[in-house]
Structures are given as C-alpha cells and as structure tokens.
Amino acid sequence: MLLYYIRHGDPIYSPDSLTSLGIRQAEAVAKRLAMYGIDEIYSSTSNRAIMTATPTSQICKKDITELDFCNESHAWKYLTITDDDGKKHWCFQDSNISKLFYSDEIYSLRNNWYEHPDIKKYNFKEGCENLKKSCDDFLFSLGFQRNNDGTYNVVKQNDKRIALFAHEGFGMFFLSNLLDIPYPTFCTRFGLNHSGMTVIYFDEKKRITTPRLLTLSNDSHIYKEGLPTKYNNKFTF
Questions:
Q1: What's residue 86's pLDDT?
Q2: What's the CA gap between 71 and 88, in Å, rounded?
Q3: Which of 43, 94, 109, 152 could form a disulfide with 165 if both were Cys (CB 3.0 to 4.6 A apart)?
C-alpha cells in the first residue's frame, strides 16, 4: 500500500478556505495523483482540506470520505498551550518546551515524552492517547494493525493507493505515530509545506511490515505547474 499524506493548500484560516494560490496547488496535486491513480480518498472535515481534496476526487472520479479525527481542531485542543499573555500556540513553538524537546531526558522517554515532570503539568497524555487510538484505528481499517514496537501486522492484503488530505499540526502527530518517531523529535525537526505530499510505503506482502517514508512534503507538482515554491510563503528553497 502507498499512503499519500497531503497537507491542504495555501489557506485562509478564517473563514476556513483556500486562497487562489491554494486552489491552484490543489489542482496541481490532482494532476500528479491522477498520473498513477488513487483508489481511495480521505480528508479532514476542515473545509480547506476538503477543498484541496476535491480536484483529486473530480479527476480520479473517487468519492471523498471525511474523517473528523483528522480535523486540526482536535490536535489544536490537545497539543497547544496558552502563554502568560493568553495567546494559544502549538507546544513545540514555546521556547521552554522546545528546549526540553531537544533534551536527552525527553529523548530517552520516547513516546512517553509527556511523562517528563516539567511537561506533565500540561496534561498532553490524554490528548495523545486519544489521537493515537484514532490514528491506529484508521490504519487498522486499511489492513495494518500496529504493534508496540512500531511495526504493523498485515491483517488484510491492501495494495491500494490511499490519499489523505489534512493539516500540518495534525500531520506532525499522525506521521510521528505512524513512523514511530517520537513526537518531540518529529515536530522540532520536520515541516510540512502547503500541498506538500508525503508518501509512505507498507509492504502488504509481508506478515509484519514497517512503514517506509519515501518522500516528505514533496512539492514537485508545484514546480511542474510553475507555481511559487516558497515554503509556507516564507522562503524559497
């Protein structure tokens, strides 16, 4: 199985939508996916994710299945903090927490990072457990049952190409969980560009498989269509 994780295009967060550039990025993604074919399309219930998935749905003639657990509002609820000024932001954007995320103490805790005494007070544990269960249930529905060591039992043969359109904040957790890379490591060292395509391979021919990352937040479809290759509108690379 090939799993394509696509972040939504250039967004308008309020109201939830896409810019004209974001719409063109979504069309570029659709052309790219149509070259090889997509068997199933999933999307966050967020409008900007659905708008990004729609051109792929139209060109590939596949319905979109909406998944509410992928909506960024849930990850935002679970993995954000409120600073002293009352502003809410992602936990990894906080200077004190990000410093801890780079520490050997957090690294040694791996997927139990939220048990660190300086982080435990934020109660990330419940949220992470809820998100993890939803992510694992989704993979199980596709035929892959997660083991404690990060490998997956192949419970049913699935050689399909699956596209999931969602978000960066949610994607940080989803991909870290799927690849068994501790969340503090993933969210401080990787990024997901607007309409960036991440591809993960599951070898369904094995009894037990380890997901393999083939490309992360790839933007070749943007380049091909002559669209700006700026990373989240910040800089060109």
A1: 86
A2: 18
A3: 43
Please list the ranges in the chain whose pLDDT falls under 50: none
Q: Which two tokens stand for residue 129?
A: 């457990």
What's the pLDDT tens digit per position in 106-159? 999 999 999 999 999 898 999 999 999 999 999 999 999 999 999 999 999 999
Question: Per the structure, how many domains does the chain have?
Answer: 1
Q: With b meaning 16 or more CB within 10 Å and e meaning fewer, what string describes 28-45?
A: bbbebbeeeebebbbbbe
Residue-wise DSSP of 43-85? EESSHHHHHHHHHHHHHHT-PEEEEGGGSHHHHHHHSEEE-TT
pTM: 0.96
| Beta carbons within 8 Å of 45's beta carbon, 6+ residues apart | 66, 67, 68, 70, 71
* Sequence-ordered list of residues with C-beta below 8 angstroms from that of 121, at least 6 positions apart, any chain: none
Task: Tell which residue, 52, 55, 27, 53, has the closest CA to residue 221.
Answer: 27
Kindly report the CATH number assigned to the domain that includes residue 77. 3.40.50.1240
Parallel, antiparallel, or unpaired: how do β-strands 40-44 and 17-18 relate? unpaired
Domain residues for 104?
A: 2-236
- Helical (H) or strand (E) element with 217: strand 212-218
- HSE (side-chain half, CA atoms, 13 Å) at 40: 14
Question: Which residues in 194-206 are b (16+ Cβ under 10 Å) and which e?
Answer: bbbbbbbebebee
Q: Which helix (H) or strand (E) holds 186?
A: helix 183-189
β-pairing, 144-146 vs 88-90, is unpaired
As to burial, measured by CB atoms within 10 angstroms (0-12 exposed, 13-18 middle, 19+ buried), residue 113 is buried
Nearest to 219 by CA among 190, 196, 191, 192: 196
